[in-house]
User: What shape does this take?
Amino acid sequence: MLSYDFMQRSLWAAALVGAICSVIGVFVVLRGLAFVGAGTAHAAFAGVTLAYLVGLPPLPLAILFGLATVWVTGVMEEKGQMKLDVSIGILYTATMALAILFIGLMKGYNAEVYGYLFGSVLSVTPEELHTIWTLGFIVLCVMVVFSKELYFIAFDQEMAEASGVPARRIYYLLLSLIALTVVVSLKTVGAILVFAMILIPASTAYQLTHSLSRMTVYSVVIGIVCAVGGVMLSYAWNLPSGPAIVLLATTIFFLSVLLSPKRLRRALA
Amino acid sequence: MGTPIIRFSHATFGFPGVIALKDITLGIAEGEFVGIIGPNGSGKTTLCKAVLGLMRPLEGSLKIFDCSCEKLRCHHRARIGYLPQKGRLDQNFPITVLETVMMGRYGALGLFRRPAKQDREIALQALANVGMQDHRDTALGHLSSGQQQRVLIARALAQQPQVLLLDEPTTGIDITTQHSVLDLVRRLHRDLGLTVLLVTHDINMIRQQVDRLVLLKTRLFAAGAPEAVLKLDILQQVYGKDLVITEKDLIIVEDYHHR
Assistant: This one.
């Protein structure tokens, strides 16, 4: 199957998406921002639909919608006006309503739009792969550079602030990175399923270790294996790629829950 | 006694519509061991936040070290090691003891610099100072609460601070462990020459340990040697009828429901 160009492209795209989703996922899981990923994905999808409606390139609008959503929720949480899950819940549904509205306004059926909703890694074009790599590389580099601050705010944001880390700015950086990760992954796993790619590898790794650094390494390995394995399954058994990736990841997650050293330790104690 | 390194001058702190601390004038000298006491809601935690640079005075001023700048988050604040109130820690957070203590280096390192061998040595030394060097690869959540307090104190020490600020370090741990944590703090004060600010509601626990007590209830009611502050008339103004004084100890009835 590797002799096909499209197959090589989709495996590369899947591997990269698996990697960045699983790294950002570590901070999302530890900082308790799970819902933000889901909300951002729907906001970014609204950006894509608007782009198709008015004939603009989808990526910049997806980024714009994604960033706007995370920043608005961040500010609302900070001002103490609203809990994060409430504001993201409202924006989540509002942006989805916008997306449905934009699709309704389109003349006729546009299959490409649905590709962004459900993911279609097997149809990734060389140009799209290039964009995914560029954006993904930037996101990964930023995460590596600021990893110690990101870990610290995940552990205890106030303690980080008190120790002289610019915790607030790092928090907004994290929110922005979540938005960018979602946009990079839209084409591959789709707006509905990208959330799973962020949460599952990190939560699986969470079950397996008590060390931050090991959790990150495990998460990346699991993320890449699930993404690449999912694409291969989808090719071999002629399944849609997004669900194949996510269901493979979910299976590994439940195995890890059953075999978790943390759980076994509790059972023995 | 050395020169004051923390100086509140007619400083008022609060949130919109609420004054938490009013018109505080207080100097903390280098090398002092100061106990901050007062009932719940008296502004003890606000005082911590102010010293840490997490809150700006609404009126008056607060100067830290010899720094003359007005910036709230001046780099000088990294020289204050902080032990937050217990109960905030997620017991399932996947982090080892050494990883926790290494976080003490992050503020001092600043952005873009990665921890080097030297930072690891500082962290290991901090762990040795609290007697936890044998647990460096243990999960933080697997430790007893007294051991966790020690590790978090080591995290503060890894900042190589001049001032150690402890917010209710003995609350929620058993009495034997309380004494061992306090002994540790006293030893660090003596051996490392640290200035210690210890916030607590447990006056009996610390009255023998501190050089000076600061009694707060929104205002500064008294500051001085324990025997000068722990007087019936002063305490009654602050604690009212919740105060019981026995032959040996004074007991404050209202005040032990902190987490």
Summary: The mean pLDDT of chain B is 84. Residues 175-192 of chain B form the longest helix (18 residues). The two ends of chain B are 35 Å apart (CA to CA).
